[in-house]
Amino acid sequence: MAEFHRSFGFLQRMCTLLVVACVIHLSVLIAFYLQNFSKVTRPPSPQVMQQHELALDPETSTRNSSQPDTPERNQTLQHCLETPPRLEGPLSVDFSEPVKLNMLMKDTRLSLGGHYTPSECVSQQKVAVIIPFRDREMHLKYWLFYLHPMLQRQQLDYGIYIIEQDGDEAFNRAKLLNVGYVEALKDYDYNCFIFSDVDLIPLDDRNLYKCYDQPRHIAVAMDKFGFKLPYNQYFGGISSLSKEQYLKINGFPNNYWGWGGEDDDIYNRLSFHGMSISRPDHNIGRCKMIRHVRDRLNQPNPERFSRISRTKETMGEDGINSLNYSVVSWEKNRLYTKITVDIGNAPHI
């Protein structure tokens, strides 16, 4: 019996010690909680809230905020592969129904101005896509709908520049391309330039929008011409030139007002400077054109053949070194940068 009482007393003391330990532990927890309660419940400052909202708002993103080409980033990522791994090959392109750009407008991978940089690797080139433009809003929607996803699959560090001609003068495609070159370089240090009509959509994403050792003709097999080159010297529709290639030929001619001739002048410039034309395979280089009537202010240029015959004489003085224009407006949205320019008056012909 005495042994039982000793055991019971020992258990009672142990239980008491355990209760005391629990009380002390609980007291410490309560004191810690009360000490940090104000820190946990204190709302963020207005400045912190504003920064958070800016980070979530896609329309306030800027090209500089992402800093995609910083040395730190380049040191942590590998260069993108020569052949991008997510290409799909032949594409389905349909112009029978209007397209919606809602999903693209919400694509937070695009910075303001239609600029994209791959997050998984460092692109081998910085590509400015330049589109001469006037009164082609429907065509532009199709172009943006199909090209943005394709260019992203190609892992390009790219920006989209819509160069709109102001006024009622005859359209001057080549001069607008010169303007696009100059204005794009004010925005970013591009080293490759894609010059594209707004009504042409590639039918295969293996047709890469980048620059090569030689000037590249991208739209080599258009449905308009039965998916064949209309003639061997044809350099129209879509082409790419590196910065060095572009400057070597003094850019493009500024004096082709109206439709036709400037592409042949550019081909002559390249040829006279000892360059040859690089082209993709015809099956890969297929492109589809959005059908349309000729614009009222883009009638055939009656002087085009005479000007083409004098390319060798004029290319040293007519080009990027003689370009003059004034910027009317500059607009950036999620999908592109639009620059409206006054490029002067066409001579009376």
Relevant terms:
alpha/beta, 35% helix, 12 strands
Task: Tell me about this structure.
The protein has 349 residues and is α/β, with parallel strands linked by helices. It is built from eleven helices and twelve strands. The chain has helices at residues 2-41, 46-56, 63-66, 71-76, 102-105, 137-153, 173-187, 243-248, 262-272, 304-308, 311-314; strands at residues 110-111, 115-116, 126-133, 157-165, 192-196, 200-202, 216-217, 221-222, 238-242, 286-289, 326-332, 337-342. The strands form three sheets. It has a seven-stranded mixed sheet. It has a three-stranded mixed sheet with strand order 6-10-8. β3 (126-133), α6 (137-153) and β4 form a beta-alpha-beta unit. Residues 32-68 have low confidence and may be disordered.
Count helical runs: 11
Round the Cα radius of gyration to an integer and report it. Answer: 31 Å
End-to-end Cα distance: 129 Å
Shape annotation: elongated
SSE topology:
Layout: H1 2-41, H2 46-56, H3 63-66, H4 71-76, H5 102-105, E1 110-111, E2 115-116, E3 126-133, H6 137-153, E4 157-165, H7 173-187, E5 192-196, E6 200-202, E7 216-217, E8 221-222, E9 238-242, H8 243-248, H9 262-272, E10 286-289, H10 304-308, H11 311-314, E11 326-332, E12 337-342
Parallel strand pairs: 3-4, 3-5, 4-12, 8-10
Antiparallel strand pairs: 1-2, 5-9, 6-10, 7-9, 11-12
Short note summarizing the structure:
With 349 residues, the chain is of the alpha/beta class. 35% of the residues lie in helices and 16% in strands.
